[in-house]
């Protein structure tokens, strides 16, 4: 499949599933693993990789509130059933342009 | 029971305001949940915490079914990509497999019953 037609999500999943060394690197040093695919991540952004397991519930928790009174507001809640069949990104909306850059970086000339 | 006073909403409020509680939950999710809800059901399952942070992008990759890593399986798993962009936070569970559906529901039911 050409890189123009393959999404970052599919390419990342394929490498993680097929290449144990890459999967280990992805978990231990996701920035380097993504760089190997031509995807650069800004220095001030952290990447948290979860290789979902079928026997594991992933409890998604909100960030610390900036002000104490903010913590008392009723939080938006969700459950994502059968998430093992999905590729999920979870991030602050303020980083949405970072995700756009990552996708464009892969599309524009990675090393896949 | 109103949204303002239910035990789940209260838990999220504590997670948002108490850094030490939050840290304990992340380091040992089962103990952290038991600390708040008073009980954790037995079962063949694990729990991990995905902590939303203002500087962090989390990627949750799909999980192979029965070790099937064929191209067809990858296509099927990546056909649906979900972007979850939060503003001040969101709480809940990713439930990778149908077998865990009732684990989570039973967990919540038992918590609600014990705190009634």
UniProtKB/TrEMBL annotation, chain B:
Organism domain of life: Bacteria
InterPro entries found in the cross-reference section: CN_Hdrase_a/SCN_Hdrase_g_sf (IPR036648)
SUPFAM superfamilies, sorted: Nitrile hydratase alpha chain
Protein name: Uncharacterized protein
């Amino acid at each position: 499949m050409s890189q123009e037609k393959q999404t970052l999500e599919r390419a990342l999943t394929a490498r993680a599933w097929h290449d144990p060394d890459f999967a280990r690197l992805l978990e231990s040093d996701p920035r380097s693993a993504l760089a190997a695919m031509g995807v650069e991540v800004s220095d001030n952004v952290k990447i948290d990789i979860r290789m979902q397991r079928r026997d594991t519930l992933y409890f998604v928790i909100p960030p610390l509130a900036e002000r104490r009174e903010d913590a008392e507001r009723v939080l938006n809640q969700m459950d994502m059933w059968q998430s093992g069949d999905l590729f999920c990104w979870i991030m602050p909306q303020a980083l949405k342009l970072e995700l756009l850059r990552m996708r464009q970086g892969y599309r524009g000339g990675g090393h896949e | 029971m109103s949204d303002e006073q239910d035990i789940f909403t209260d838990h999220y409020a504590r997670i948002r305001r108490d850094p030490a509680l939050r840290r304990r939950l992340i380091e040992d999710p089962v103990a952290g949940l038991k600390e708040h809800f008073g009980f954790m059901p037995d079962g063949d399952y694990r729990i991990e915490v995905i902590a939303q942070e203002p500087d962090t992008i989390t990627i949750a990759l799909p999980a192979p079914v029965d070790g099937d890593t064929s191209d067809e399986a990858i296509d099927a798993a990546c056909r649906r990509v979900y972007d979850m962009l939060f503003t001040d936070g969101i709480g809940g569970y990713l439930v990778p497999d149908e077998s865990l559906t009732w684990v989570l529901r039973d967990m919540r039911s038992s918590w609600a019953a014990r705190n009634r």
